[in-house]
Backbone:
């Protein structure tokens, strides 16, 4: 008996429905898998530790510088000769006179301490005090006093010592003091003395009456003689290179590597007072009227 409102299902239709349901696949439910353990990541390669930088050898000592940008040689005129130990009223000339026009810059030949002043004989003057170069292997306290006189102007210096750099302008060539006479050509009076320490060097007033000696002067003389004068055959013709604590500035600066300009004869009235270096000096290995030899080497190191 069938219920009212429902379709009648025959046995054949029911069997077909059962077969169709059995043929329909059931949906596949995905199975979550546990994550497989990961191998530890390799660390990126680290840069190799850089080797300690090789020690850089200290640069060789800087050579000293020439004191003028021009070279017109040694002064000699009616006022007298300008060579080292040339005759003077007080005895002998304590330095050398470098002929140059008024206003020519005067340069510090080394790094050290400088001071300036003025008096009746030297006129305007500048003193530069420097340590003796290390390559000469003298005690570290040894000092050289370099003295410039008859300046026209002084550049930035006073009586109290102050630091000065190698090659710095310290003044200009002039005709002050006892160089003001019309018979004396314009020039730079240049003295060099050697002292045991800085305080003694700064106390040197470069008076012509003071002919005191120093142990340092003999030490420097021996070092320069064996390591420059003898190997280069450098000497003053018929003259001396030392007077107590004072030395010939041309010879000492040449041996310490100061490369001066080549000698040139000036024009005008200065030409009459100009004498080339070869009239007073000789050398076997270089032309004294030109630049000069290399600076003396460090102890134990020969020239190439």
Residues:
């Amino acid at each position: 008996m069938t219920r009212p409102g429902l379709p009648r299902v025959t046995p054949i239709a029911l069997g077909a429905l059962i077969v169709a349901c059995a043929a329909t696949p059931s949906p596949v439910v995905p199975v979550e898998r546990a994550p497989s353990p990961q191998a530890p990541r390799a660390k990126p390669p680290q840069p190799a530790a850089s080797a300690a930088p090789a020690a850089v050898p200290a640069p060789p000592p800087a050579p000293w510088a020439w004191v003028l940008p021009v070279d017109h040689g040694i002064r000699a005129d009616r006022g007298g000769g300008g060579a080292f130990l040339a005759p003077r009223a007080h005895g002998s000339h304590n330095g050398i006179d470098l002929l140059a026009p008024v206003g020519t810059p005067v340069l510090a030949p080394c790094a050290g301490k400088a001071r300036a002043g003025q008096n009746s004989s030297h006129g305007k003057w500048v003193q530069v005090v420097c340590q003796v170069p290390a390559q000469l292997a003298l005690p570290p306290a040894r000092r050289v006093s370099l003295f410039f006189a008859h300046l026209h102007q002084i550049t930035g210096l006073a009586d109290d010592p102050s630091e000065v750099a190698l090659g710095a302008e310290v003044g200009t060539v002039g005709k002050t003091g006892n160089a003001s006479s019309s018979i004396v050509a314009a020039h730079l009076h240049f003295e060099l003395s050697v002292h045991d320490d800085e305080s003694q060097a700064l106390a040197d007033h470069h008076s012509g009456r003071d002919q005191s000696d120093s142990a340092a002067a003999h030490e420097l003389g021996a070092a320069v003689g064996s390591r420059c004068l003898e190997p280069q055959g450098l000497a003053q013709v018929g003259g001396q290179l030392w007077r107590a604590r004072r030395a010939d500035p041309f010879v000492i600066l040449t041996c310490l590597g100061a490369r001066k300009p080549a000698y040139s004869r000036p024009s005008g009235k200065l030409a009459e007072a100009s004498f080339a270096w070869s009239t007073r000096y000789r050398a076997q290995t270089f032309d004294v009227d030109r630049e000069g030899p290399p600076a003396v080497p460090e102890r134990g190191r020969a020239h190439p």
